[in-house]
Amino acid sequence: MNRSIASGVVSVVSAKVVVLVVTALSTPLLYRLLGASAFGEYSFLLSVFAIYMIFVSSGVTDGVRKFLAEDRAAANWSEHVVGFYFRLAILLAGLGAVLLVLSTGLGIVDLAFGSGLKLYFYVLAALVVTAQFRDYTRKTLMGFGLERYSEPLKILDKIAFVAVAVPLVSLGAGVIGALAGHLVASTLVAVIGLVLVHRRVSLSCLFSRPTERFPRKQMLTFNSMSIALVFLLMSLYHIDIVMLQRFRESAAVGNYKAALTLAEFLWFIPMALQTVFVHSTSELWSQNRLREISDLASRTMRYTFLLTAVMAVGLAALADVAVPIYFGEEAVPAITPLLLLLPGALGFALARPILAISQGKGTLRYPVAATGAAAAINLVLNLALIPRFGMGGAAVATSIGYGSMFVFHCWSARLVGFDPLADARLGRAALTTVLAAVPIFTLSAAIAKPWLALVVVPPVGFGIFVGFALLVGALDPAEPFEVLSMAPDPIGSRAAAIQVSLEDDNDGETRSWFQSLLFVAGLSLLVSGLALGVVGTDIRFF
């Protein structure tokens, strides 16, 4: 199979960018149209559905992608794999839909989640079928190396959902309208995906019977550890929503989901790295290049910490401004859980590249154990705190659960065979965050106009943060210019020249001058921030 891994990675990451942008635009719109209570019901339903679909689709989607990619020499291998998993997808989708209908009709759903949700679960039963074939076709195309088709289908799914759901909800269809958007979008993607698969392998393979030597048992038992890992990760994402719906009113669930949505924006860069590292580190593991893996892991952790921390500090400083502007005044109660979620979101961001590198080796026992430990802590704390403290309890429990992912996966990484802390400089990165937070928060408090604060604080805050990172040694002086050297000229060429100058500075004279300048600037910013903080935030610059 001839394909460029790099182009596949670019396709995946590009699709993630587009989906993130569409999600960032559509989520506050749906929140405003539905209102906090209905948005809470909608978020709860999607969380239940996501957990349920793990058992319906994970074995199908991951299996078809893996075995198609192997491209074995057996006769009609691709046709038999596509046909085998197509039959399995039909069987599991049918069983999953019937089970959901029976559970709803027999009152099990009412017993578990309360009355008033029955109609929604009937819609989810239909969505089980369409979502199954949407995901099956996308993963089949990925197994053939056709990310240029599979990733645009992911974008189409998101855009079609918005195009259908937003008009229906605005016309008063409520949660049913939003679910109908998912139903229509997944049906559209499934149909187009099946057509694309048929162009590669005839779907008549559904009726073909492979030989007795065809590895049916291996295919059925494959991925049990991956399914366990996905289930544990999904529990971290969704168990707080499910439990909050059980113990609090839907409005609290809606506002908590709004807070989660903003906190999860911090994961974009780590998620992109995770996508790339599963592919790129497999070769390093196969060549037993452990030192390079540790260097890559620790440097990535350092960059991830700094990039995620500056986003977290900025979001925390602007929370009072950003939340009402983004979601509306009704979402003001989401501010407190957002602030509580940010530390944990940072920890989870750090865990993601570590997990990806561990997956690259293919040994999932320790990553599953690490994720399981974090999921258990998350579950126990949510059970203990949500009934008493509601949204705040869910945020504290989830933040601790997220943060524990970093601790447990550092332990897992050592057992897998690499050290993600070798050059992570976590102490210096943490000091950078604390020092930069003072002037960033002060600047945010000093700007009275909300929109002006949103425009000014992020770029200025980023500059302040980078300055402190260079000052305390969380970043080497040449590293920012290494990134800038990738920009178009004249910026790229000038940054490259400065990078070379700093790297070749054997006597350290240029570096010492640079750090002295940063020390004066950083001290001035810190003193100014502390002084304004002592005087009070009543001083407004604009």
From TrEMBL:
One of its GO terms (cellular component) is plasma membrane. Keywords: Cell membrane, Membrane, Transmembrane, Transmembrane helix. The chain crosses the membrane at residues 12-31, 43-64, 84-109, 115-134, 155-173, 179-198, 219-239, 259-282, 303-328, 334-355, 367-386, 392-417, 429-448, 454-475, 517-536. It is found in: Cell membrane. It is a multi-pass membrane protein. Its main location: membrane. It comes from the Archaea. It holds the Pfam family Polysacc_synt. This is Flippase. It comes from Natrinema versiforme.
